[in-house]
Amino acid sequence: MRPPDSVEVLVVGAGPAGSEFARRLAAAGREVLLVEKRPEIGNPVRCAEAVERDPLVRVCGEPPPECVASPIHGAVGHAPDGRRVVYETEEVVGLTLNRRLFDRWLAGRAAAAGAEVLTRTRLVGLERPDDDWRVVLRRGGEQHELRSRLVVAADGVEGSTLRRAGIGKPWVSKRMHSGVQARVVGLPRREPPLIELHLGRERFPGGYGWCFPLGGDRANIGLCLEPPLGVDEELRGRLEAFLARSYPGARPVEFVAGTIPALDKPRRIVADGLLALGDAAGHAEPFSGGGIANALQGAAVAAEVAVTALDGGNVAEDSLRPYVENWNAGVGRSLRRYAKLRRFYLSLKDRDFNDALELLERQLERWRTGKRSSVLSLLTSVVTSSPRLLLKARHLL
Fold first, then answer.
1. Would you list the DSSP string of 161-207?
2. 331-352 average pLDDT score
3. Band of residue 338 on the pLDDT scale cut at 50, 70, 90
4. I want to staple 102 with a disulfide (CB 3.0 to 4.6 A). Which of 67, 209, 357, 384 is the partner?
5. How far is the first Cα of the chain from the last one, in angstroms, to the nearest whole number?
């Protein structure tokens, strides 16, 4: 199948953000082409696959069972001194997804809504000689030129759409997480399933370790560390040491490594006839690196603005600016607070982490009695309940 000669909306990248945006625009009656450079949508998976349940369901509804590897009923925190803090609830607070199937489900919904979806299709040229974009796509070894009214960059950290549009800047290494992960088998089955987070400056400099259940004896186990440790060989060596020490029965099936934006200021995400979504827009949560829920929420905000702009016949930057304003007033506001928490987190030493986990145990008692708040509020309450941590935070938050 050849790409069309013209399309109203071109979405580059069929990850969660791109597919959800394409679905919403197609459902609103707009002409949409969704392109993905990889042969298979959702493969390879470069993601820990865990997501908070509520924001995902608000945007997408309940995903089908085959897209969910495991429900999550809480978390275990591991301190450097061996202390364990457990929070467990009967309700499902999160999901570990099967990203291969989840991404394909989202792209399938976009196609069902009327979007045309093409894989093995890469954007290789982009310029704006007039009110439309001139786009060059490469597919099957051939190049195709088309015109598009609106171009949407949803092609992730490694994407080139923003750079080709003339507004993308190189990612700054100190504003990135370095991540490495193994998909493993051989773990003891735990009921109910909980995520595990390992903290400590000595073992996890600038980040943390994780174990996210995938059902049965399977899990994703990985590390998120500061960019100076971003060499794949060193990251994998640290991960193998982590597995041997904390999960000696785990048998790795595959490894994956990558980088995640951890921005304290938003990127430029709109221009004339152009929007950016998800990781391409720097919308990953800068404290943990999580990005699935933010990508979906950003797609919903952007889609509403884009439909209004297209209905009005004007996709100039001023018409798309409400996307920035609405994002900043909503999810973007919490991301700015998480960015401040990240700066504080990077200042902590092992002694601080030990104290913080002890304080967290006390704060979680309120959650166990039904007095739940947001995770961000929970973390803030831990900091403010310790004079020593609060003194550190005064200079950073």
1. HHHHHT---PPPGGGEEEEEEEEEE-PPP-SS--EEEE--TTTSTTS
2. 86
3. confident
4. 67
5. 53
